[in-house]
Amino acid sequence: MKKRVVAATVAGLLIAAGAAGVYGLKNTDGGAGQRAKPPIAVGMAKVATEDLPIELSATGNVTAIEKVEVKPQVSGVVAKVHVKEGQQVAPGQLLFTLDTAAETAQLKKAQAQLLSDQAQLKNAERDLARSRDLLVKNFVSQSVVDANQSKMDALSATVAADRAQVDAARVALDYKTLRASIGGRIGVIGVYPGTLVQPGMATAMLTITRTHPITATFTLPERNLGAVRNAQAAGTLLVRATLPDSGDSVDGKLVFIDSAVDSANGTLTLKAEFANQDGKLWPGQFVNVALDAGRYQQATTIPVAALLTGPEGKFSYTVQADGGVKRVPVELLAIHKEKAIVKGLSAGDTVVSNGGLNLRPGDKVRAAKAGQASGGQ
User: Fold this and answer.
1) How does strand 40-46 pair with strand 365-367?
2) What is the pLDDT of residues 221-241, one digit of tens each?
3) Distance between CA 250 and CA 274 in Å, rounded?
4) Which of 369, 304, 363, 362 is nearest to 338 (CA)?
5) How, if at all, do strands 214-221 and 267-274 pair?
6) How far apart are CA 88 and CA 211, in angstroms?
7) What is the Cα–Cα distance from 299 to 314, expressed in whole angstroms?
8) Mean pLDDT of the residues in the chain
9) Of 71, 96, 121, 241, which is least surrounded by CB within 10 A?
10) Which residues form the Multidrug resistance protein MdtA-like alpha-helical hairpin domain (predicted)?
11) How far apart are CA 357 and CA 126, in angstroms?
């Protein structure tokens, strides 16, 4: 009986102690039920205004200004290849010779026929002249003169036709010689001596690509159109193409702005031309393009790390006077090195430049010491 009384007494004391602890906790927190969340250490930066160059960046594709696929105009067998793959050729340079035996024979035949008909024409001219003299002396009638005139006219037409045949034979013979229509570099040669070629063949005999000057095609968002047009009105726009692998860069100029914005993706196509005398740029390459489009006057800037992206778009956290953070939507205009040029913030505002990924609107923050900001960007 005594044991039961002792156990009941101990249990009562424990319940009372727990109730007192709960009561004490509630009194300590003033009824909140939990301790206040301490300020979060973050990096901070001031919103600034400054003059910055308008440097529009994009990825471009190097394209040749001229590219020609060489195909025959007549059927024939390749007799000789006069160039090598990768060779630089000049306009008019001999590339291929096709077998010309049939065309040469046809030309000789046409020339021989022309000589024969020219001889007959000369004889007809003499006959006509004699008949006219005899007509004056009344030795022949007018009909004889008319007959000789008709014969000479017919032979004159025949000679003209013969000359046309000779010209056609020469053209057919010329078609058996293929020359470069532009200067440039030769690609892969797809035929060899003995290969039968014909018009309309699917694969070109070879391709000539002009590599200097050369162009790079790239696109920019339509929001940059105004800046590009304003800068273009002021003078030539400089463009720099940088090779991603080697880091080598080539300077050129903007030569083309497309006449319309692509409504499907809201971009504008542009082209830049480069002298490329050293051959650094190669057709088909991808390059990093930077277009110098003037300067931003008193642009609003923040560190790039202060620019965050959420479901509703880009935003930054500004630090209020009480240490709380506020989510402010911003519009990104451009990025210059480590600075973002934006709209939506005012000079002198304080933004969270490091640690913003873990924040929520209303959280309290404090300036962190070096390397102390919580949450990476």
Assistant:
1) parallel
2) 998 888 898 888 888 899 999
3) 7
4) 304
5) antiparallel
6) 10
7) 18
8) 87
9) 71
10) 106-175
11) 108
- Tokens read off for 6: 């002792």
What percent of the chain is predicted at pLDDT more than 90? 69
CB atoms within 10 A of CB 369: 9
Minimal CA–CA distance to 186: which of 350, 67, 271, 322?
67
Rg (CA), the chain: 44
Half-sphere exposure of 143 (CA within 13 A, CB side): 0
When pLDDT is averaged across residues 111-126 and rounded to a whole number, the result is 96
218 bridge partner residues: 270
Q: Tokens at residue 215, please?
A: 């162009």
Instruction: Give, as one character, the DSSP assignment of residue 337.
Output: T
CA distance 139 to 191: 71
The answer to whether 83 touches 295, Cβ cutoff 8 Å, is no
Q: What is the helix, strand, coil percentage profile of the chain, to 5?
A: 30, 35, 35
d(CA 216, CA 288): 10
Per-position DSSP letters for 9-41, written without gaps between them: HHHHHHHHHHHHHHHHHHHHTTT-SSPPPPPEE
CA 212 vs. chain centroid, Å, equals: 16
- Would you place residue 35 in the very low, low, confident or very high pLDDT band (cuts 50, 70, 90)? low
339 burial via Cβ count (<10 Å: 0-12, 13-18, 19+): middle
Using alpha carbons, select from 292, 190, 284 the residue that is nearest to residue 234.
292
Token output for 198: 């014909």
Are 101 and 139 contacting, i.e. CB atoms less than 8 angstroms apart? no
Cβ proximity of 377 and 357 under 8 Å: yes
Q: What sign does the CA torsion over 164, 167, 173, 178 have?
A: negative
The closest alpha carbon to 42, from 376, 374, 377, belongs to: 374
